[in-house]
Design a protein that fits this description.
600 residues; alpha/beta; TIM Barrel; Thrombin, subunit H; 8-stranded parallel beta barrel; 6-stranded antiparallel sheet
Length: 600
């Protein structure tokens, strides 16, 4: 399997945009059982996306990655059969019960919700029959390299997009507070809310969005991740729009190809043109971090859980909705602006008109002299993206005489070959030079197909034939290489099941076993006593609701492993602003993890 740039698809249109921008694969939600319930798609749309992707030898993976209740197993299996028939190249799943079901021979990818955070867990998922595993975002580059050295399964890693504060699959906070389970695709994102950090005596030590993480950006680390053994480089964002998808894919396509070329590894050879300049700063992000790839560091977006954007100037004078600014970036009508009000609240408005240093906005409330303005939506950039992204497959054409007539051979950079024959007899051309020019001109006209000609080679003398016959020969030649390329699409290797007693005998509810098939599989690998996952029961009233590599003490400069640890007391709690929720924090310094418990 070649190195893969994997992009999100909210819908078919976003998926096609991702492919056109250079993605080697996309992942898209199924009609049901996806971890982003608001990003579901019909089987018909998935099938259309598959057809588009396969023309560029790109793949489509469908997400069926929630835990399944007993009554849902049969429907999920039926859905996977239909999706397999629609031509999808793999399914991303969380519920291991599906491995015990009667599925078609569809390659299975272990969702990041399976909590693949260690070599032991990845070995288990490989033995269970997965083709690929999506690694936990919390792993360092060194840990990924050790997993690569100890396994043969394909490794997929996130390189860009939103970060969950908790280990994926291990967060039950949304389910505990409001009955909306992240493992069921219904996360209400309580981690993005404001909290007060208080001690046992009620004293407040910090305020803000204390659990809200910045966004991941590992474009600088692609080479290190390649060297560590990552096969698939994944961009997060199945709720994002076309502009986000096009921009991130374009930026990572270029960067990844540079890394591949430097290592003499095959890179994307398609010809991709953009009507914009890729710039990761102009699309949605909460500030960027590289995560835990190279150790621990500050990672939270404490001031706001939303995209602030890039600085564009400072407000000088305000009269009604007219604002004079000291602009550092040109603004356009339709741009979105955001700023922090004097009370420290993130607010936003839209630019209506621009005249020099004076702009008129929809609502200037909260803007005072000295307010720093940021642009979190660029109308000009979105217009440039809408002008289009074009992807073409370069082909070389060769025309030669054969016994039965004229043969057109069409080849791509990967060695795929298509042929078509135009049967004779033919007339000799009156003007040989003019005939050669006409043949080349007509054969190079690839039009609206996915192909672009890199040249036509004429082997020997050419006959006179009508233009319509030349066009028909070209059409059949391109159709032939298209069929050859469809037959040679790189495919995930189907996983092999190798049962072994590699699990603990006692499994707690964090293994997310919610049906009999999942219980059956875990028993095959050594488990004897298995607690049901929370979703199989009523919402959590109290107990642990989160395990996080992110540590609030470290974030606030009070790590207990450092002399500064005394800056905060040992007993700490998170309290919501309305006082309805109180979460106790426990710090496992040996494992460098933070545990969050809900209290009544």
């Amino acid at each position: 399997m070649p190195i893969e740039l994997l992009a999100p698809a909210r819908d078919r249109t976003c998926g096609e945009m991702a492919i056109n921008a250079g993605a080697d694969a996309v992942y898209i939600g199924a009609p049901r059982f996806g971890a982003r319930r608001n990003a579901s798609n019909s089987v018909e749309d998935v099938a259309i996306l598959v057809q588009h992707a396969h023309r560029y030898q790109s793949r489509v993976y469908v997400t069926v990655n929630t835990v399944l209740l007993e009554r849902e197993l049969e429907e999920a299996v039926s859905l996977l059969r239909v999706l397999y028939d629609a031509g999808v190249d793999g399914a991303i799943i969380q519920d291991l019960g599906l491995l015990e079901a009667d599925l078609p021979p569809i390659p299975l990818i272990a969702s990041t919700q399976t909590h693949a955070h260690s070599l032991e867990k990845v070995r288990f998922l490989e033995a269970a029959g997965f083709s690929r595993v999506i690694l936990a975002r919390e792993l360092s580059i060194g840990e990924i390299a050790r997993i690569r050295a100890g396994t043969r399964i394909e490794l997929e890693a996130f390189v860009h997009g939103a970060l969950c504060v908790c280990y994926s699959g291990q967060c039950y906070l949304s389910f505990a507070i409001g009955g909306r389970s992240a493992n069921r695709g219904e996360c209400a994102q309580p981690c993005r809310k404001r909290y007060r950090l208080v001690d046992g005596r009620g004293r407040v030590h910090a305020n803000g969005h204390l659990l809200s993480m910045k966004d991941l950006n590992r474009i600088r680390l692609l080479g290190d991740l390649l060297d560590a053994g990552v096969t698939s480089f994944k961009i997060e964002g199945r709720l994002k729009d076309e502009a986000y998808v096009a921009n991130t894919v374009a930026a990572y396509r270029r960067a990844l190809d540079d890394c591949l070329e430097a290592r003499c590894v095959p890179r994307c050879t398609d010809r991709i043109s953009y009507a914009f300049t890729p710039n990761l700063e102009v699309t949605f992000h909460r500030g960027y971090v590289e995560g835990f790839a190279q150790g621990n560091g500050t990672m939270a977006s404490l001031e706001a859980p939303k995209a602030v954007g890039i600085p564009v100037g400072t407000a000088l004078e305000i009269k009604g909705n007219t604002v004079e600014i000291d602009a550092t970036e040109p603004l356009s009508p339709g741009d979105g602006l955001c700023f922090f009000s004097p009370e420290g609240t993130l607010a936003g408005t839209c630019v209506q008109s621009v005249r020099g240093k004076t702009i008129v906005v929809n609502d200037a409330a909260g803007i005072v002299p000295g307010t720093a303005l940021h642009r979190n939506h660029s109308r000009q950039f979105h217009l440039a993206v809408k002008k289009g992204v074009q992807r073409k497959v370069p082909v070389h054409m060769r025309l030669k005489a054969v016994e039965s007539g004229m043969m057109l051979v069409v080849e791509d950079a990967s060695g795929n070959r298509g042929t078509a024959i135009l049967s004779g007899p033919f007339a000799e051309p009156r003007n040989r030079e003019l005939a050669e020019t006409k043949w080349k001109t007509q054969l190079e006209k690839t039009g609206s197909t996915e192909f672009v000609s890199e040249g036509v080679e004429l082997k020997g003398a050419v006959p006179f034939v009508p233009v319509a016959s030349m066009n028909e020969l070209r059409r059949r030649g391109l159709e032939s290489i298209r069929e050859a390329r469809l037959r040679s699409i790189p495919a995930l290797k189907k996983g092999e099941v190798r049962p072994a007693a590699c699990l603990p005998e006692v499994l707690d509810s964090a293994y997310n076993v919610t049906n009999s098939k999942a219980e059956q599989l875990h028993r095959r690998f050594g488990a004897k006593q298995i607690a049901q996952g929370p979703e199989a029961n009523s919402p959590i009233a109290e107990g642990r609701v989160m395990i996080s590599k992110y540590c609030l003490r470290r974030e606030l400069g009070a790590c207990l492993q450092q002399p500064s640890g005394g800056n905060l007391p040992p007993d700490l709690f998170l309290a919501t602003e309305d006082g309805k929720e109180r979460l106790r924090l426990r710090f496992d310094c040996e494992a460098c993890k933070m545990h969050v418990f809900r209290e009544k």
